[in-house]
Write a structure and sequence with these properties.
Blueprint lengths: L10 E5 L4 H12 L3 E6 L2 H15 L3 E5 L7 H11 L6 E4 L14 H29 L2 E6 L15 H18 L5 E7 L2 E3 L2 H5 L2 H4 L7 E3 H13 L4 E3 L2 H12 L2 H16 L2
Parallel strand pairs: 1-2, 1-4, 2-3, 4-5, 5-6, 6-9, 7-8
Helix pairs in contact: 1-2, 1-8, 3-4, 4-5
């Protein structure tokens, strides 16, 4: 059941925890009594968030500065926690970002880094931490995907939708493979969410033209994600508007879906 009493003091590792949905997820887990390990590239932001959560929620927060575009980062995070005897009972793969523009407008290194951060690192972190969860008979893995992973292809941010679709497929597969072990794996699929994401992509002005009913706040997205993984839902789409869009994408012919969602995508991404 959501909001269930935890059997013991638990620790959650959250990547990309310095802002946006990642920061909101840190607060959601903290409010439910979890200790935290936060990782991101910005050490000053991590330290600030850690201090705030410890004071507000009475938990213990550790931080690890890491850049997941480095192929060695996931193993280094795992080894650091092992050497510190910190047991990870929940993993939140949240780190991610978009690249603005068409495929050839980003050099390959930027695309490769995005794959490393948003595909390879989450899969490797699952592979590293899942065995311990299975052995102990308890674990939670929340992979932050996106509504875009459920929609037809559209122009702009060429790699993003495919990467998010991969996270959904990975989460669904793992949830089937480890059903009955006490480990829940969930793909969280938010749509437009108020965060720094669009500022980093420099599309804030464009996406602000989208109607207000399509937007959600990060705290609501995070709390829904927390409850979804606790309840063992393999895929959770945030908000009734996004659920409706995901349903439409399932029932309309893919060619028609590309026309519909491609038009919306152009409005949201052309600045």
């Amino acid at each position: 059941m959501s909001g269930q009493t935890l059997p013991a003091r638990r620790t959650c590792l959250i990547t990309g925890a310095s802002a946006g949905i990642g920061k909101a997820l840190a607060l959601a887990f903290a409010r439910h009594g979890w200790d935290l390990v936060l990782t991101a590239r910005r050490e000053d932001r991590l330290d600030e968030i850690a201090q705030d959560l410890e004071q507000r929620c009475g938990i213990t927060v550790s931080s690890i500065t890491a850049d997941l575009s480095d192929p060695n980062a996931p193993a280094q995070i795992f080894d650091s926690l092992q050497s510190s005897n910190i047991q990870i009972d929940a993993l939140v793969n949240n780190a991610g970002y978009g690249l603005k523009g068409k495929f050839l407008q980003s050099d390959w290194q930027n695309n490769q880094d995005q794959i490393e951060v948003m595909m390879t690192a989450p899969a490797q972190l699952c592979h590293l931490f899942l065995p311990g969860m299975v052995e102990r008979g308890f674990g939670r893995i929340l992979n932050v995907s996106s509504l875009s992973g459920l929609l037809p292809s559209s122009p702009g941010s060429s790699m993003y939708g495919g990467i998010k679709s991969f996270l959904i497929q990975l989460s669904e597969t793992l949830s089937i493979e480890y059903d009955g072990t006490g480990v829940h794996i969930t793909a969280l699929c938010p749509g437009f969410t108020y965060s720094e994401f669009h500022d980093v992509m420099k599309t804030r002005r464009a996406v602000s033209r989208m109607p207000s009913f399509m937007w959600m706040d990060a705290d609501t997205v995070a709390e829904q994600g927390y409850r979804a993984v606790m309840d063992g839902k393999p895929v959770y789409v945030n908000g009734w508007v996004n659920k409706g869009l995901a349903l439409v994408a399932q029932v309309v012919p893919r060619s028609l879906g590309r026309l519909i969602f491609g038009s919306v995508s152009r409005k949201a991404r052309v600045d």
